[in-house]
Amino acid sequence: MKRFDYIRPASIDEALAAWNPGAAWLGGGTNLVDLMKTGAVQPDTVIDVTRLPGLDRIEWGADGSLRIGAMVRNADLADDPEVARRLPMVAEALLAGASGQLRNAATVGGNLMQHTRCNYFETPQAACNRRDPGTGCDARDGENANLAVLGWSEACIATNPSDFCVPLAALDAVVEVQGPEGKREIAIADFHSLPGDTPERRTALEPGELILAVRLPAAAADFAGHARYLKVRERTSYAFALVSAAAALRMEGDRIAEARLALGAVAAKPWRVAEAEALLAGQAPDPHLFARAAGAALTGAAPSGDNSWKIDLARRTAARALAMAATGAPARMPALPASPFGEPAGDHVHA
Amino acid sequence: MPDTLVQPVRFGSNSGQPVTRRDGIAKVTGAATFAADNQPAGLLHAVYLPATIARGRVTHLDVAAAEAHPGVVQIITPADRPPLDGDPSAKPTPFSFRIDVLQDDTVRYAGQPIALVLGETLEAATEGARLLAPRYAAETARTALDDETPFAFEPAGFGLPAGAEHGDVAGGHAAATQAVDVTYETAAQYHNAMETHAVVAAWEGDHLTLDMPSQALAMSCGAYAYFFGIPAENVTLRSPYLGGGFGSKAFTTGPQVLAILAARMTGRPVKLSLTRQQMFGPVGHRGATRQRLRLGADVAAALTVIDHESIAATSSFDDFVEPAANASQGLYSAQALRAAHRAVRLDVGTPGPMRAPGEASGSAALECAMDELAQEAGIDPLEFRLRNYAETEPGTGKPYSSKALRQCYDQAAERFGWAGRPLAPRQMRDEAGLLVGWGMGTALFPAPMFAAEARATLRPDGSALVETSAADMGQGAWTALAQIAADSLGLPLDRVEFRAGHSDLPDAGVAGGSGHTATAGTALHAAGGDVIRQLGEIAAADEASPLHGAGNAGFVARDGRLCVAGDEERSEAFADILARAGGAALIGNGSGSRAPEDAERWAMNAHGAVFAEVKVDPDLCQMRVTRLVGAFAAGRIINPKLAESQLMGGMIWGTSFALHEEARHDRHTGRIVNADFAGYHIAVNADVQGLEVITVHEDDPHVNALGIKGVGEIGVTGTVGAIANAIWHATGTRVRRFPIRVRDLLEAGSPVG
Predict the structure, then answer these.
(1) Which of B414, B569, B713, B747 is catalytic?
(2) Is B146 in the same domain as B262?
(3) How far is CA A270 from CA A105, A169, A171, A310, B86, in A?
């Protein structure tokens, strides 16, 4: 890989001061380092922020909100009993991602910042507007069966591969960042960008801004009893989603008071549709209702290539996730988190 | 894991015992030295630049930029690559392929080496390769079976398989009262051993030393000697451990030859180790196939014809045509049989043997077609196979050397609980509402032998050294072969030092074709027997020995003592016999191969039956294999623990074949877009839920003196079809391509709920 400077700042101020336009923040490195090896990403400076003090905490506010430091490891967050109790689909999504070894390394901030797994982005020899603006998009006429069916543009049909970000989107997470201009907050809905004509602008982060934490409002825990993450994939573990869905219901009696629904792996950002949620509010849980809501969630979906099948699958996945949420979050994490196979008899934990 | 193995009869004191692999601790603690672990002084690191297009020419390499990078020592391109002594397009051994070693600027497949960079560090060489920033004159690549016209070819042995025709095929079609005519496709698959291909090459004058994983040490030495113009005995190849091979490490590859060349050019040792991504190109793969199967049966559901045509992909410049259609020839008692192969030239690396070459893809299609015909006939798939059970080899009429397939069917069906399976699909659900399906397939793999030699040395202290250049790919040869050797010498295992994996040792042939234990084992058995024979002659002639004069009675060796056959009280310790004879060691030699007349007379195969249960989500179409039960009859089992592991590994491989493995090409450049373990899926632990192996006892006096058939590959066969058939049984959807994907069930209109 290209030679680069490695800096390990001791404080956030030092980190921000070290930033330059050719720099990249280094968290667990589970995505960035791979891309540096292929040459898809070639930073001049790598600023290792994993040792910054204070970013590795999971803190519950007096009001019931949660603040997750950007350098909390995915495994630590997933294994936190309070997180699993109050925000079960967050834990389930984390455990559905990658492998135990990768989750030990990967960080919360890094998860938000991970790149698409579109092979044409990862391969420097391919034309990719997201990687090299203006070069074109080889994926459009290439192997695109797993690429976007929502929110894509002629310039880019990449998907966001994160599991974790899908429930974050459903639960109105807020991203705390700090940059040269000081601190600010970005709603998760605004954090990841749809490609439009500028697919290279993948997040709302300004140059030099660093993620400090992700916050979940207290209201996120109101869904604890009826929240599920569902991930469909070809193999049972260690695979990116074909399609995933986070579904959460706040029940009042036998009625849905409020619903949240977000889809993963269908667009360049977690896909949340207010209209689908509005359809559910005030209604009694029912398969037909879920099917209608799922249909609404896919409004505007269109194949970007050889992937019309994903639209059908996403609809089915959304409806199922809602049904699973209506059934209720399981008392303990299934042996196969986020899997339609859940907890097969005699199975071992295979997250 | 339940103790599922039926223990075979105990043979001797070592063979038949479930001895734990002797190299296991060394491997899990990191003490085992694999090729790339070697770090000789003065080492240079070599990294090759792989082409990112599949067809065209390299028009520019920025050599200056790469050379300017700190730590880069030298760049080798087609423009300045020194000549080899042997032609890279020649095939110096019976089993070899044309290799790519920068002979010109043509690109023939993605992943082909187009330049070699030598660096003082791996990082410098890697960055040097990146800085070469190749430019191409690219042509549209041909990577799909439809991209070229299939052609017929003259059979020419390895790589160009003969077909077969027996009986009246047209008549068989005409006589059928029920028939299927179905076409199945299998995807290109790439062997991905845990250890990627690697070499550390060092020259001293015209002597070449190689640390390199090899499934065929002597053959490899001969090939490298050819390319570098030296006698084969000037090549020393050390291959003590392999992290898997699966067929891909039996052949000379271009990258390894380039590293050897670089070592000769620079006068320094050179290490080259492929990245995972580089495994998808120059080191072989299983070519894609399209197989048409026309099966017919009469009113009694007896097969009238098996007519199997296969088209397989090979490269644009060499021939390896997956012999898929031949998999349907030796199994079911059809009146007429036909196997025909054609090939398609694509811009891919040359395919090669990959675990059960031909048998795996052919069995997948055949077992599904059999299931379709059973469905057509309204007969249970197992019953259909039993009605077409072959008592002699179909077509040839040869007797089987042994065939306990019926017992395999019985025992696996019993263990699985096959009885009561509904004939119609989509009849079973589990408590969670998942669709449940059961399917089965027959497993078959030939029991070949190659040629091997071995040496046994009985030391004065009564211990022994046995030597053969066997290759342990991880299958357990270090252990099973030592067990055979110990029995041949009448010694406990811990009194036998076993040396293998070095080219200076007697040639053990190739670890392939599931024939290594049989072949090298037979040689070791003979070498041990030779020592005991000599020892017997010494003792019988020695007046001071209690065995004096007992030569005509014959001797047996038992626990370090030579005993009179039938009168084992009359015995003497090996060491005592040797001591009186002057204290010198005794050396015996042995060889292993099969007499041609035996090969001609008998049909020799291992057999098995595999039953699969799958669950399928009715809406989401995600599939999971929840149970696999396989029963296998493979002659004498030397080490049940290792054999069970091999068979399990084969069945897991079959799971990957059925549901996961597929190289996907960019249709323009021909580049493989999923050339890593994130994109190229093989089964993970969570994909293997219930897995049971039964070994069915089988005495085979004909395959070889030890009665060994082999277990390395058969587990793949049968399994793929069993899983696909179970998916049909669960869903009612027949997917005729592998791997079977979620989208295949979705697009087939699998109804919701």
Answers:
(1) B713
(2) yes
(3) 23, 6, 12, 15, 57
Interface test with A, best of B627, B685, B689, B740 (most A CBs within 10 A): B689
Domain at B532, CATH number? 3.30.365.10
pLDDT tens by residue, B375-412: 999 999 999 999 999 999 999 999 999 999 999 999 99
Q: Is the pLDDT of residue B317 over 80?
A: yes
Q: How would residue B752 be classed by pLDDT, with cut points 50, 70 and 90?
A: low
Using CA atoms in the order B31, B212, A123, A148, what is the torsion angle rounded to 10 degrees?
-70
| The predicted structure's pLDDT at residue B1 | 35
Pair (B671, B708) in one structural domain: yes
| Structure tokens given for B81 | 């690559």
Strands (E), chain A: 5-7, 23-26, 45-48, 58-60, 66-69, 174-179, 182-187, 210-216, 227-232, 243-252, 255-264, 271-272
Structurally, chain A folds into a number of domains equal to 1
Same domain, B440 and B470: no
Considering only the C-alpha atoms of chain B, give the largest distance between any 2 of them, rounded to a whole number of Å: 88
Residue B561, domain extent: 452-593
**B434 contact residues in A (CB cutoff 8 A):** 340-341
CB A261 within 8 A of CB A279: no
Using a CB-CB distance cutoff of 8 angstroms, which residues of chain B are in contact with residue A336? Answer: 686
Beta bridge pairs of residue B586: B458
pLDDT digits (tens, 9 = 90+) for B722-739: 999 999 999 999 999 999
Helix B359-377 / helix B719-731 crossing angle, nearest 10 deg: 40
Which residue in the block uniquely carries the two structure tokens 């003792």? B539
Say whether the peptide bond before residue B739 is cis (omega within 30 degrees of 0): yes
What's the pLDDT at B751? 54
pLDDT per position as a tens digit, A15-66: 999 999 999 999 999 999 999 999 999 999 999 999 999 999 999 999 999 9
User: Can you give the pLDDT at residue B9?
Assistant: 35
**Mean pLDDT, range B442-461, rounded to an integer:** 97
Full 3-state SS string of B292-331: EEEEEECCCCCEEEEEEEEEEEEECCCCCCCCHHHHHCCC
Contact B752 A316 (CB under 8 A): yes
CA-CA-CA-CA torsion sign (A203, A206, A210, A212)? negative
Beta bridge partners of B440: B611
Nearest CA in chain A to B747: A309
Q: Which of B593, B625, B649 is the last residue of a domain?
A: B593
Active site residue B600: no
Sign of CA dihedral B241, B245, B249, B255: negative
Domain contains A56: no
